[in-house]
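Let us work through a complete example step by step.
Step 1: write down the sequence.
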Amino acid sequence: MTSRTNPPHHRTTILTGFIMYVAVVNIPMRAQIANLYDEVKSGILLLPLMGATAVGSGVGGAISSKNNHTFWTLITASALMIVGCGLMSTLPATVSVATRQWGFEVILGFGIGMNLSTTTLVTSLNAEFQDFGAFPPYPYNLPPSIPFLNHPPIHTGPS
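Step 2: predict the structure and record it as tokens.
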């Protein structure tokens, strides 16, 4: 697999993962510190981000898989991520959660989802058939399961 388009897409995936990690960690942490929420309530604040990521993945895959519009899909996704990150940085530091945060998360999540699905699709579009991985034959998948085969049975009742 020696396509010249793959390394930029791998870098894009790494940068998208960084943005997603920062968002997934910082949104609940900010809610617990600045908004005085408990763990569950601060985790619920991630629902718009995760829902939009799922929808963005479907939309990005559908757009990119038709006629290989991966370049324009990645440009759009990156623009949405930049706008979402920029808008998230404008949130006020108040005790109550700003309602616009939910909309900002949707923009950011949609861009993340489109980006991740498109970069995943680019790899499969640029790979030859012989580069696709296959399930290894039986002798090669046996060694990882050997510790489980030698494990003694656990008895819970009287013997």
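Step 3: interpret the result. Residues 145-152 have pLDDT under 50 and may be disordered.
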